[in-house]
């Protein structure tokens, strides 16, 4: 695979990605199903689900355990066969607060409840299957995929296989292991969208995915090599890079006739359509500063401690755990917190690893955060407006356009967690709309 060790960012900043080099050669290690699965009701952007089971119920692998009415809703499913032990509030790693979860205790030999059959002859059946399978954006956004597939007036469908994060390689590994299956998922999405053009955007170089490239060429799918940049993995910036079209502030790619879906999302649709399996498992990259990157296939709802134990590591050697990547992940307070169905990474850091944000200094107004911002907003000014609770200024500075890439925090010489303040500013701006 590519030997490049840096991504080039705005402001002539170089991001070290040497930890990725060669890691895609590691096959997925399939973990055993957990003895207990914690299935959160909120695993998508939109209205929260309510449990469809009660304490004491027997559930099968793949059985729906939570759902709700409404356009922006996606059901959740049990990833193991067992008994509902509790329905209670657990700490949610993304919401950063307690949220309703169904806790299932594994008890009997695994039995799969398959999805109902769909003929998939038209777009409506593909869209219905996508929702029934609980498919969301598997790149980490968790946007309901069926809502995207129901879009009208789509000219271009972009498959995002960029995988920019410095310690994630699971998408590339998936493309190496399951090329035919990935393409079948892409074709179903393209059929639902009715797009004139399908583009497969990847950071890999020609010949690195030989089987996938051969199939795509035969099927008429355009393969576009994206320049080595971390921030271009964001869908708005990816659209600009590929098509030369800018998504207006406060708008989405659909507003200019483009729909973007992650390559792992396409594979999830393949599993739903051809294996009758909802989203109960996925591949991710596990990174530790002691051991590098390993690719893991896990069941959703598996606690972090069970993942690390399943990889034969001593969890006591790590003092920080992050669900997601080094740049965009969420730190968690306990290893008992579970992974979600859209978790693409798990990061474990030892006590020796740097902790720059423990000693934050005052802002020196160097402007470095502004110079590297890939969406051309002003993090330094937004940070000031957030501290002053100035919602008018936050809206004027277009805080809503922040893609939460983390670059502003990463380059700050005062070690200020600027991204956290921008996220806070986005919440304040939305609360007064």
Question: How does this structure look, described?
Answer:
- By secondary structure, the protein is α/β, with parallel strands linked by helices.
- Among the domains are: 6-26 and 117-275, Rossmann fold; 361-431, no CATH class.
- Helix content is 27%, strand content 22%.
- It has 13 helices and 19 strands.
- It has helices at 123-132, 145-149, 170-177, 179-193, 210-219, 235-243, 263-275, 304-310, 368-372, 379-387, 391-396, 407-411, 418-431; strands at 6-9, 13-16, 29-30, 36-40, 50-51, 58-59, 64-67, 76-77, 82-92, 97-106, 156-161, 197-202, 222-225, 258-262, 281-288, 292-299, 320-323, 330-332, 345-349.
- A six-stranded mixed β-sheet has the order 3-16-15-19-17-18, covered by helices on one side.
- The radius of gyration is 21 Å and the shape is globular.
- The termini are far apart.
Outline of the structure:
By secondary structure, the protein is of the alpha/beta class. It has helices at 123-132, 145-149, 170-177, 179-193, 210-219, 235-243, 263-275, 304-310, 368-372, 379-387, 391-396, 407-411, 418-431; strands at 6-9, 13-16, 29-30, 36-40, 50-51, 58-59, 64-67, 76-77, 82-92, 97-106, 156-161, 197-202, 222-225, 258-262, 281-288, 292-299, 320-323, 330-332, 345-349.
Keywords for this entry:
single chain; 433 residues; alpha/beta; Rossmann fold; six-stranded mixed sheet; four-stranded antiparallel sheet; 19 strands
């Amino acid at each position: 695979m590519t030997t490049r060790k840096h991504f080039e960012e705005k402001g002539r900043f170089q991001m070290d990605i040497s930890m990725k080099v060669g890691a895609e050669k590691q096959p997925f290690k399939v973990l055993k199903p957990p003895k207990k699965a914690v299935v959160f009701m909120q695993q998508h952007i939109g209205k929260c689900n309510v449990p469809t089971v009660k304490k004491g119920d027997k559930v099968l692998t793949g059985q729906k355990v939570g759902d709700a009415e409404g356009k922006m809703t996606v059901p959740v499913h049990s990833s193991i066969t067992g008994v509902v032990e509790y329905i209670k509030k657990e700490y949610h790693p993304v919401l950063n607060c307690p949220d309703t979860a169904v806790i299932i205790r594994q008890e009997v030999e695994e039995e799969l409840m398959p999805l109902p059959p769909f003929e998939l002859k038209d777009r409506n059946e593909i869209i219905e299957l996508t929702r029934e399978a609980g498919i969301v954006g598997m790149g980490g956004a968790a946007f309901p995929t069926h809502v995207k597939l129901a879009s009208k007036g789509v000219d271009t469908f972009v498959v995002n296989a960029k995988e920019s994060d410095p310690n994630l390689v699971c998408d590339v590994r998936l493309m190496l292991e399951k090329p035919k299956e990935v393409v079948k998922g892409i074709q179903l999405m393209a059929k639902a969208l009715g797009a004139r053009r399908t583009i497969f955007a990847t950071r890999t170089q020609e010949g690195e995915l030989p089987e996938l490239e051969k199939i795509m060429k035969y099927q008429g799918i355009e393969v576009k090599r994206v320049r080595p940049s971390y921030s271009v993995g964001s869908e708005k910036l990816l659209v600009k890079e590929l098509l030369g079209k800018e998504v207006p502030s406060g708008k989405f790619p659909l507003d200019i006739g483009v729909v973007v879906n992650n390559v792992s999302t396409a594979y999830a649709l393949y599993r739903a359509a051809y294996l009758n399996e909802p989203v109960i498992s996925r591949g991710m990259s596990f990174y530790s500063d002691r051991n590098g990157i390993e690719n893991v296939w896990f069941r959703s709802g598996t606690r972090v401690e069970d993942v690390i134990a399943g990889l034969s590591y001593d969890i006591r050697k790590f003092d920080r755990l992050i669900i997601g990547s080094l740049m965009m992940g969420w730190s968690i307070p306990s290893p008992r917190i579970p992974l979600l169905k859209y978790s693409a990474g798990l990061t474990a850091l030892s006590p020796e690893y740097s902790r720059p944000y423990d000693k934050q200094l005052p802002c020196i107004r160097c402007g470095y955060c502004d110079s590297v911002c890939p969406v051309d907003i002003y993090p330094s000014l937004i940070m000031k407006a957030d501290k002053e609770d100035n919602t008018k200024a936050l809206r004027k500075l277009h805080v809503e356009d922040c893609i939460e890439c983390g670059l502003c925090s990463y380059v700050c010489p005062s070690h200020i967690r600027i991204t956290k303040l921008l996220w806070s500013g986005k919440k304040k701006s939305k609360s007064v709309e």
